[in-house]
Specification:
By secondary structure, the chain is α+β, with helices and mostly antiparallel strands. The chain has 18 helices and 12 strands. The structure holds protoporphyrin IX containing FE. Keywords: Endoplasmic reticulum, Heme, Iron, Membrane, Metal-binding, Microsome, Monooxygenase, Oxidoreductase, Signal.
Length: 481
C-alpha cells in the first residue's frame, strides 16, 4: 500500500489522476463487479472529465496514461517510439499477426502488407463484395415484411463471406461450421476485452483456472485449426507454382484480371518472408479485424437511418441518382460519387466509433506534459470522447448531423479529431477495404429496402468491449421499396 502511494505521487500535477483511487486496486472500483454497461459508462465518464491533456487511470498497480486531447493523441500516435502494443494485446492470442504484434515484428510485417489492399487490388474485390451483398439481400428477401430482425446477424455473415472470399478464396456458404466461425469472429474481441478490465486475470496462472480461459482456448483452437488448413492449401499451390493471383496487371494497365487474394500475396511477398505461424495468425487477424468491425459499423448506420427517415431518404435518393439501374454497375470510381452517403457514414463512425479506446506502449522513454514517462508505459486514447468533444464538434456534438462532414465544415479540422480508423502509421490497414465494402452493402440495401426501428437514440447503451458493442440488438424492420 505504501509503495502504491509513493508511485502515485511520483508524477507531476500536470498528469492528473482519476478518482476515486485506492492503494493496491487503484481505480479498480470503477470496474470490479460492475456490469459491462456500467464499465463502459464509468470509463467514458472519467475520460470526458479528464481536464489535463494526459491523466492517469490505475488498473490495480498498472497505470494507463489516458488522453482525450487531439494534440496529445497526435503526439502519441505519430511517435515512432509509441507504436508498441501493451501486454494486454497478448490476450488476443494472435501476437504473430499484425494487429497484436510487438513493434519489432510489426514494422517489417506492416511494410510488407501495406500494399496488400491498394486501390487496384480493392477494385479486383468489387465483384466479390457485390456477390456477398446480393446473397445477404436474398436471405433478407425471405423475411416477412415488417418482422423485427437483428440486422447485425445478417451483416456479420455478409462481411465474413467477403473476408473469406478475398483473403483465401473460400465460399463460407459451402461450410458446415459457419455458426462456429461466426462465433469465433465475435469472440475475437470479447474475451480479450473481458480479461483487460479484470486485472486479476492478467496473470496467466490465475486466468488458466477460469471458465473464460477454457472457452477462449476452445474457440482459438477451432480458428487455428482452420487457419492451418488454409495455410496448407495455399502452401501446396505455392510449392507447385499454382497460386491463382496475377502477379502482373493486364495489358491495358487497368487492373488485375483476378482478385488478389491476401493469402497468396503473403506467400509470394518478395520484401519479407513470413513464417508459417505468421501467415496463419495474419489470416486470422484479417478475419478478426475485418468482419465484426465492418458489420458493426454498417449496423449502426442502418439503425441511425432507421431512426432518422429524412436522412435515409436523402441517402436513398443519392444512391438512386448514382446507380439508377436495377443491377448497379459498381466500381471504386462510381462509389466516390456517393458523397452524401459518405458524410452520413462518417458521422455514424464519429458517434459510434467501432474502436472506442486504443492502447499503445512506448519502447523508449518519452517526455510528455513535462514528465519523463519510462519505456514500457501504457497509453490510452479515448476515441469515443475525442469524437464527442464540444470544443471540436460544437455544442450539439452528441447529436447526429452529417453536415459536419461537408467539405466546407471539414476544412481545417484537426487531423486527429476524427479517428474512426485510428491515426499515424499503426492505423487501420483495411480502412479503404472497409469503406468500399460498406458502401456496396449500403447501395444494395438502400435500393431494395426501407428501414424502420422502434429504438430511440437516447435509449442506446453500450457494453465495455474492444469494439463499441450495443447493449441489446440492432433491431430493425425492413420493408421492400
Ligand atoms: C468499419 C470497419 C473498420 C474499422 C472502424 C476499423 C478500425 C480500426 C482501428 C481503429 C484500428 C487501430 C487499432 C489501434 O490503433 O490499436 C484498426 C487496425 C487494424 N485493422 Fe481495421 N477497422 C475496420 C475494418 C478493417 C478491415 C475490413 C480490415 C481488413 C481487411 C482491417 C484490418 C486491420 C488491421 C490488420 C489492423 C492492425 C493494423 C496494425 O496494427 O498495423 N480493419 N482498425
Amino acid at each position: 500500500a505504501i509503495w502504491s502511494i509513493v508511485k502515485k505521487n511520483s508524477y507531476p500535477q500536470t498528469i492528473g489522476i482519476v478518482e476515486p483511487w485506492y492503494p493496491l486496486i487503484g481505480n479498480g472500483l470503477l470496474f470490479l463487479g460492475q456490469t459491462d454497461v456500467k464499465k463502459f459508462q464509468n470509463l467514458e465518464k472519467v475520460c470526458s472529465a479528464g481536464k489535463e491533456d494526459l491523466f492517469r487511470l490505475y488498473l490495480g498497480e498498472k497505470i494507463i496514461f489516458y488522453t482525450n486531447d487531439v494534440n496529445m493523441a497526435q503526439k502519441i500516435m505519430t511517435n515512432p517510439n509509441c507504436m508498441n502494443r501493451p501486454y494486454m494485446y497478448d490476450f488476443f492470442n494472435l501476437n504473430k499477426g499484425l494487429f497484436a504484434a510487438k513493434t519489432h515484428l510489426w514494422k517489417g510485417q506492416r511494410k510488407a502488407l501495406n500494399p496488400a489492399f491498394n486501390m487496384k487490388i480493392l477494385e479486383s474485390f468489387v465483384p466479390i463484395f457485390c456477390d456477398a451483398t446480393k446473397n445477404m439481400v436474398q436471405r433478407l428477401d425471405a423475411i416477412p415484411a415488417g418482422e423485427t430482425i437483428n440486422i447485425m446477424e445478417h451483416l456479420l455473415r455478409c462481411t465474413l463471406e467477403m473476408l473469406c472470399a478475398t483473403t483465401f478464396e473460400f465460399d463460407v456458404n459451402d461450410f458446415a461450421k459457419i455458426d462456429e466461425m461466426l462465433h469465433g469472429m465475435e469472440s475475437f474481441f470479447y474475451y480479450a476485452a473481458k480479461r483487460m478490465l479484470k486485472f486479476q486475470y492478467h496473470l496467466d496462472f490465475i486466468y488458466r483456472w477460469t471458465k473464460d480461459y477454457r472457452e477462449q482456448t476452445s474457440v482459438h483452437k477451432f480458428m487455428h485449426t482452420y487457419g492451418m488448413q488454409i495455410y496448407n492449401n495455399a502452401n501446396e499451390k505455392y510449392t507447385k507454382g499454382l497460386l491463382t493471383n496475377d502477379q502482373t496487371e493486364d495489358g491495358n494497365n487497368e487492373g488485375f484480371r483476378k482478385p488478389q487474394l491476401f493469402v497468396n500475396q503473403i506467400f509470394s511477398n518478395t520484401s519479407r518472408k513470413f513464417t508459417r505461424e505468421e501467415i496463419i495468425e495474419n489470416i486470422l487477424t484479417i478475419l478478426g479485424a475485418g468482419t465484426d468491425t465492418s458489420a458493426t459499423e454498417v449496423a449502426y448506420v442502418l439503425l441511425q437511418l432507421a431512426m432518422y427517415p429524412s436522412y435515409q431518404q436523402k441517402v436513398y435518393e443519392e444512391i438512386m441518382k448514382v446507380f439508377p439501374e436495377a443491377e448497379p454497375h459498381i466500381t471504386t470510381e462510381s462509389l466516390k460519387r456517393l458523397q452524401y452517403t459518405e458524410m452520413v457514414m462518417n458521422e455514424c463512425f464519429r458517434i459510434y466509433p467501432v474502436a472506442p479506446n486504443l492502447l499503445r506502449e512506448n519502447t523508449e522513454d518519452v517526455t510528455l506534459c513535462g514528465a519523463r514517462i519510462p519505456k514500457g508505459s501504457i497509453f490510452g486514447i479515448s476515441i469515443y470522447t475525442i469524437h464527442r468533444r464540444k470544443d471540436i464538434w460544437g455544442p450539439d456534438a452528441d447529436r447526429f448531423n452529417p453536415e459536419r462532414f461537408s467539405p466546407e465544415r471539414s476544412a481545417g479540422r484537426h487531423p486527429f479529431a476524427f479517428l474512426a480508423f485510428s491515426g499515424g502509421s499503426r492505423n487501420c490497414l483495411g480502412a479503404r477495404y472497409a469503406m468500399i465494402s460498406m458502401k456496396i452493402m449500403l447501395v444494395y440495401l438502400m435500393k431494395k429496402y426501407h428501414f424502420k426501428t422502434k429504438i430511440r437514440e437516447e435509449d442506446l447503451r453500450y457494453r465495455f468491449e474492444i469494439i463499441l458493442r450495443l447493449d441489446g440488438e440492432h433491431l430493425v424492420q425492413i420493408e421492400k421499396r
